[in-house]
Amino acid sequence: MEQKDEVQKSTGQRNIEEKTVGSKGAEIKNTVRKTAGSKKKRKRTKKRKRNRKSLWQRIRGAELDGKSLLIGIGFGALLVLLVVLGIFRCSSSKEEEKTSGLDLDASEPEISVQLLDVNEYSRPGTETDPITGIVIHYTANPGSTAQANRDYFNGLQDGHGTSVSSHFVVGLQGEIVQCVPTWEVAYASNERNHDTISIECCHPDETGVFTDKTYASMVQLTAFLCRKFQLNEEAVIRHYDVTGKNCPKYFVEKEEAWNVFKADVKAALEKGEK
Ligand SMILES: [Zn+2]
Fold first, then answer.
1. Domain boundary among 61, 79, 100
2. Helix or strand (DSSP H, E) at 133
3. What angle is formed at CA 206 by the lines to CA 203 and CA 207, rounded to 5 degrees?
4. What is the pLDDT of residues 60-82, one digit of tens each?
5. Cα(236) to centroid of ligand 1, in Å?
6. 44 and 159 share a domain?
7. Separation of CA 89 and ligand 1 centre (Å)
8. Predicted pLDDT of residue 80
């Protein structure tokens, strides 16, 4: 240990000597690192100044003529330009991919409230936990209307053993029917029934693609509910994200369409804030 201390001490002394020499104008590569407090800071600043000076001297020493200097600056500028262009291109193409350009906001859409009778098969009357998500579904019943789906849910009370419902159904013409109050549990999203709002969406055919009117109402209703429950588009999920079920079919099979939907909800929310 003592030996080591001595070595360190003598190294320190050598460094100080080197520094002294350096200040007289010789080339400096290593200077003292282990100095205390404010002294250290002052010495660093001095060192930087010296380095700058020596760089300039080096440039002059190398007899860098005007031509090579211009070429250097030219290359530098070109590099900066390319980087800027690259960033701009990336961000703009990202924007283009994102939304479908719908002019929607998060205001309350027109809703036909037709609450189901309280019954054990479709409206248990159970209060939800705080709402943390919005779950999107498709009816899997091509061509059926919002009204028909609502009436089906209500008819389940007559007892066939099936338990299913949804807070909202969005129809083929973009009409919205509410079946269950948002503070009560609906039977749509399995283990997420207790803390989510469900939206069933009608579709004209087997592909599960939504009509433009259905789609627009889905975006506005979802944005409205997000704002109501202080959520953002990240809280919007598919039934698929809960159970792995192919629902809503189109948004499961076309991941990019799902991303566009969420981006549309986000855009509607941002517009609603203004
Ligand atoms: Zn579903």
1. 61
2. strand 133-138
3. 80
4. 555 556 677 676 777 778 777 77
5. 13
6. no
7. 38
8. 76
Q: What is the pLDDT of residue 217?
A: 98
pLDDT computed for residue 234 by the predictor = 97
pLDDT value of residue 122: 97
Give distance in angstroms: CA of 146 to centre of ligand 1.
15
CA of 248 to the centre of ligand 1 (A): 6
The residue ranges of the chain whose pLDDT is under 50 are 1-42, 45, 59, 93-96
Q: What is the mean pLDDT of the chain?
A: 81
pLDDT at 76: 78
- Say if CB 186 and CB 198 are below 8 A apart: yes
CATH code of the domain in which 142 resides: 3.40.80.10
Tally of domains within the chain:
2
Distances in Å between the Cα of 255 and the Cα atoms of 93, 118, 238, 251 are 18, 36, 11, 6
Whether residue 138 sits in one domain with residue 38 = no
252 and 138 share a domain?
yes
pLDDT at 27: 42
Would 230 be classed as within a structural domain?
A: yes
Give the other-Cβ count within 10 Å of 83's Cβ.
10
139 and 220 share a domain?
yes
Ligand 1 centre from 68 Cα, in Å? Answer: 68
CA of 234 to the centre of ligand 1 (A): 18
Centre of ligand 1 from the C-alpha of residue 20, in Å:
79
- What are φ and ψ of residue 56, in 5° steps? -60, -40
Say how many Å lie between the CA of residue 64 and the centre of ligand 1. Answer: 72
Distance from Cα 241 to the centre of ligand 1, integer Å: 10
Question: How many Å lie between the centroid of ligand 1 and the Cα of residue 270?
Answer: 27
Cα dist from 27 to 10, 55, 58, 164, 220, whole Å: 21, 11, 11, 83, 70
pLDDT value, residue 207: 97
The domain in which residue 221 lies consists of: 112-273
In this structure, the answer to whether residues 17 and 118 fall within a common structural domain is no
168 shares a domain with 245: yes
